[in-house]
Specification:
The complex is a heterodimer of chains A (291) and B (306).
Chain A lengths: L19 H26 L15 H9 L4 E3 L5 H6 L4 H8 L23 E2 L8 H12 L3 E6 L6 H13 L3 E7 L2 E2 L2 E2 L8 H8 L2 E6 L2 H11 L5 E6 L19 H32 L2
Parallel strand pairs in A: 1-2, 1-3, 3-4, 4-8, 7-8
Antiparallel strand pairs in A: 5-6
Chain B lengths: L4 H14 L5 E3 L7 H4 L10 E3 L4 H12 L7 E4 L5 H19 L6 E6 L5 H4 L5 H4 L5 E3 L4 H13 L4 E6 L19 E6 L2 H14 L4 E6 L1 E3 L5 H8 L3 E9 L4 H13 L3 E6 L17 H16 L1
Parallel strand pairs in B: 1-2, 1-3, 3-4, 4-6, 5-6, 7-8, 7-10, 10-11
Antiparallel strand pairs in B: 5-9
Helix pairs in contact in B: 1-7, 3-4, 8-11
The chains are: A alpha/beta (291), B alpha/beta (306).
Chain lengths: 291, 306
C-alpha cells in the first residue's frame, strides 16, 4: 500500500482505541478546530485579517486526538498551530484577538498566527525558525523531565538541527513525543523532490521507537497511548493539508478528506444525527467568537 | 595568590551546578584541559551535559533548558566563531522569548575567543552578532571581579546573556581600573583583550609625551556611557575605541559613534582588520597590538594637528 493512502499503517488493535463517547467528544473538538479555521479564512478573504495566516484545515484532528489521550504534555509546535492551541485548552477568544492584532491576544499581538503560545496549557511559542522547536523541546524535557511534545512538518523535519536533537533525545532517553504532520508538501514541493529517506526510519536508526501511519484518529490514539510509556518516540502521520501553506488558497481536492471520513465512520456506528448536531454546535460556538 | 579569571569561572560554576540551579551544556567540555580550567571536573549527574557535535541543536537544547522555571543554565561555545552555527536558537528564541511571549529564557552563553595562528573561524571575538539582536545582554569581562559581577547580573535578572570571554583573560588575577588624568589628551576605550594592548600602548605613548586616559568597557549591551567616561573623553582631543572583534560595523565603530555624539569629540575605532585570518603568522588578524594602537593615535593626532 502506498504511504499516501488513508488506511496506511492500519492495525486491528487500533479499532477500539477510542470509546464511542470519547470519540464523539473528540469529534466536537475536531469540528470546532475545523470551523475555527474556516472562520479565520473567511475573515482573511474579506481582508479583515491582514497578517500571514497558517491554517490547519485537513490536519485539524491530529492535535485534537493527541490531546484527548494525553495529559500534562508540554507543547512545542510551530507555525501551523491554531488547532494545537485550541485542542489543548487555549482560550479561543484570545486566539481571535491575537489574529486581530489586539493586545488582549494570546501573545499580546506579537505572535500573529505563526507564533502563538498558551502558558496556561503548557504550550510554548514558536520563533518562526522552522524546526527550532525540536531541540528546544528536547532541552526542556531533559531538564524538567516533563513529557513534552515536539511537532514538525515533513519539511521542517528535514532541518539538520531537528535530526541532531532527535539523536540526542534517543541517546539520553529524553521524554519527548516527536510528531510529524506529514502532508507531503513543503509549501508546494513534494517530499519526493527533496529527499529519498523517511523520518520514521531515521528515528528508528537513532534507537527510538517510531511508526509511520495515516491520520486515522483511532490509529493515532492507539500509537500515542503506547508511545507515552516509551518516550522518546517518533510518530509520522500522513495527512492532507487542504489549503495553501499560508493563506486560504486551494489546489483542488485533497488526496483524502479525513473529516468526512470521521463523520462517515461515526454515522456508520449509528451516531449520524449526533454528529450533525455536534458539528452545528461547534459552528455556532465559533461564530459567537467573531461577533 | 589571588584567584584567576579561570578559577572564578570554574568555582562559580561548580557551586552553581552542585546547588542544582542549572546545568552546563557544551561540546567536549570534559576533554583535555576542561576549557582552560574554567569547567569544574563534575559528572553528568552533577550537571555537566556533553552535547553531540551538532552545534545548532546543541544550542537549542540549552535554550530549552533555560525555559524551565528556576533554571539558569550555562552554554559553553569553545570558539566564538562557532556562533555562526549556534546563534540561531540563542538569538532567535532565547533573546526574543520574553519580548514575544513574556516568558523569560535566561541562558548564560560563555563564548570564548582565542587568537594566534588558529585560522579564519576560531580567531577573535564575535560579539557583534548578539549585539545586533534585541533581548540579550552582552558583556566582555577580563578580570576576576568583572566576571563575577556579570555572573551576578545573570542570576539577578532573567535575560539571556552573552559573555564574550577571551582566553587571554583566563590567567589574569589583577583588576583593571580606569585611569583618568587631567593632563590626558587621548582617551583609549578598550573592549575585551584589546584592553591589555591598550595599557601597553598608553605606556609607549606616555614615554613620548602623549598622556592617555584608560577606560575599560565591561558591558557592551546595555551600553552605559557613564558621566565619568563622557567627562573624561570630552576633555581630550581624541577618543579611540578598541576591540578584539571586527572594526567595520562592529562594537568599536558603533560605540565610537555613540561616544562621539555624547561628547562632541572626534572618536575613532580600531578593531580587527576587514580580512580573514589565516593560519600562518603573517596572515593572522589579532587584537590590535600596542604598536597598532600607538600608530593609530599618532596618525589621527597628526592629521588633526595639520
Amino acid at each position: 500500500m502506498s504511504c499516501r493512502a488513508p488506511e496506511f499503517g492500519w492495525v486491528e488493535a487500533a479499532t477500539d482505541s477510542l470509546a464511542d463517547s470519547d470519540y464523539l467528544r473528540l469529534f466536537k473538538q475536531i469540528s470546532f478546530n475545523r470551523h475555527f479555521e474556516f472562520a479565520v479564512a473567511g475573515h482573511c478573504d474579506r481582508k479583515e485579517i491582514r497578517i500571514p495566516i497558517y491554517l490547519s484545515v485537513g490536519q485539524e484532528h491530529i492535535p485534537a486526538v493527541i490531546a484527548s489521550v494525553t495529559k500534562d504534555l508540554k507543547i512545542f509546535a510551530q507555525h501551523r498551530a491554531h488547532s494545537y492551541y485550541l485542542s489543548f485548552g487555549g482560550d479561543p477568544r484570545k486566539l481571535v484577538d491575537e489574529l486581530r492584532n489586539l493586545t488582549s491576544g494570546c501573545a499580546g499581538g506579537m505572535g500573529g498566527s505563526a507564533s502563538i503560545h498558551c502558558p496556561e496549557s503548557g504550550m510554548f511559542g514558536h520563533s518562526g525558525l522552522m524546526g527550532d522547536q525540536v531541540p528546544i523541546a528536547v532541552g526542556y524535557a531533559l531538564v524538567s523531565k516533563n513529557a513534552t511534545m515536539a511537532v514538525v512538518g515533513d519539511g521542517s523535519g528535514e532541518e539538520d538541527y531537528v535530526l541532531g536533537a532527535m539523536g540526542f533525545a534517543a541517546t539520553k532517553k529524553v521524554p519527548v513525543l516527536f510528531v510529524c504532520e506529514d502532508n507531503d508538501l513543503s509549501i508546494l514541493t513534494k517530499t519526493s523532490a527533496r529527499r529519498s529517506w523517511g523520518l520514521a526510519e531515521v528515528a528508528r536508526s537513532f534507537g527510538m521507537g517510531s511508526v509511520d501511519i495515516a491520520d486515522d484518529p483511532l490509529l493515532i490514539a492507539h500509537h500515542v497511548k503506547q508511545a507515552m510509556d516509551n518516550l522518546p518516540f517518533y510518530i509520522n502521520i500522513r495527512t492532507c493539508r487542504q489549503l495553501w501553506h499560508a493563506g486560504t488558497g486551494r489546489d483542488g481536492l485533497p488526496e483524502w478528506n479525513r473529516f468526512e471520513m470521521i463523520k462517515a465512520h461515526l454515522a456508520a456506528k449509528g451516531y449520524g444525527d449526533h454528529v450533525t448536531a455536534l458539528e452545528q454546535e461547534a459552528i455556532s460556538e465559533v461564530e459567537a467568537l467573531w461577533v | 595568590m589571588g584567584l584567576t579569571v579561570a578559577d572564578v569561572i570554574r568555582e562559580t560554576t561548580r557551586a552553581h551546578l552542585l546547588a542544582g540551579r542549572g546545568k552546563l551544556f557544551g561540546q567536549c567540555v570534559t576533554a583535555v584541559g576542561w576549557i582552560g580550567g574554567t569547567v569544574p571536573e563534575l559528572t553528568e549527574q552533577e550537571g555537566i551535559i556533553e552535547l553531540s557535535m551538532a552545534d545548532v541543536s546543541g544550542a537549542g537544547i540549552a535554550v530549552g533548558a533555560a525555559l524551565v522555571p528556576g533554571q539558569r543554565p550555562i552554554y559553553v561555545i569553545r570558539y566564538q566563531g562557532f556562533m555562526w552555527y549556534n546563534a540561531a536558537p540563542i538569538l532567535n528564541y532565547a533573546a526574543k522569548s520574553k519580548e514575544m511571549w513574556g516568558v523569560p529564557c535566561p541562558l548564560a552563553v560563555r563564548s570564548i575567543a582565542m587568537e594566534g595562528a588558529i585560522g579564519p573561524v576560531a580567531s577573535g571575538c564575535h560579539h557583534f552578532m548578539p549585539l545586533h539582536m534585541p533581548g540579550i545582554k552582552v558583556a566582555a569581562p577580563m578580570t576576576p571581579k568583572e566576571w563575577a559581577s556579570v555572573w551576578q547580573d545573570y542570576l539577578d535578572g532573567d535575560d539571556p546573556i552573552y559573555i564574550s570571554e577571551h582566553r587571554r583573560s583566563f590567567p589574569l588575577q589583577e583588576e583593571m581600573p580606569d585611569v583618568i588624568q587631567d593632563s590626558a589628551s587621548v582617551s583609549l576605550v578598550g573592549i575585551s583583550a584589546s584592553r591589555l594592548e591598550m595599557v601597553k600602548a598608553a605606556e609607549i605613548l606616555s614615554a613620548e609625551g602623549i598622556v592617555c586616559n584608560l577606560l575599560h568597557l565591561l558591558w557592551l549591551k546595555p551600553l552605559e556611557l557613564s558621566e565619568t567616561i563622557c567627562r573624561a573623553v570630552a576633555k581630550c582631543r581624541l577618543g579611540l575605541v578598541i576591540d578584539s572583534d571586527y572594526e567595520f560595523c562592529g562594537a568599536s565603530e558603533s560605540i565610537a559613534l555613540r561616544l562621539m555624539h555624547a561628547t562632541g569629540r572626534p572618536i575613532h575605532a580600531l578593531g580587527l582588520e576587514d580580512r580573514s585570518a589565516g593560519f600562518a603568522p603573517h596572515f593572522d588578524n589579532p587584537t590590535p597590538t600596542a604598536e597598532r594602537i600607538v600608530a593609530k593615535v599618532k596618525s589621527v593626532l597628526n592629521s588633526t594637528a595639520a
